[in-house]
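Re: the request from the purification team.
They wanted to know what the chain is likely to look like in 3D before they choose a buffer screen. I agreed to run a prediction and write the result into the notebook, where they can find it.
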Amino acid sequence: MTSLTYDRGRPAPHRWWALLGFAFAVTVAAAIGGLGVSGTTAEYQQLEQPAWAPPSAVFGPVWTVLYATIAVAAWLAWQRAGFGLPLRFWVGQLVLNAVWTPLFFGAGRYGLAFLDICLLWVAIGATVVLFHRVHRGAAWLLVPYWAWVTYAAALNLAIWRLNA
């Protein structure tokens, strides 16, 4: 292996462009979510919520950090395995992630959003397992995301039940 190549023989400079590509994909998912919450702050605050629900201001900073780790995790896995099965699962979980916000906030479909977030939770778990096989660091970068989605799923369920 020369200093200009890495695991799969791709030229090193291209890997930085790939990181931008993964960041772009995550940004698109976040933007779809952002469209889903546009103008819904008052509506969300009027919902019955459990006592352990965080203030709305927490979500933005948490998701910013999580989206960054999601992109870096995919980039690390891609460097080792290319666009194989692990990255296909990563794309699948990203799609489920993007769909949740419009379902929950935009459409007010809390039950359907809960189904989506349960599928998302499974998809993240599968992605963690697949990433672990190719790059342990990439897998560990997804663990806080998986934990947050676990919490978000419980919150989604509670809001659904309280507002049914």
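For the purification team: The CA atoms of residues 91 and 102 lie 18 Å apart.
Please add any questions underneath this entry.
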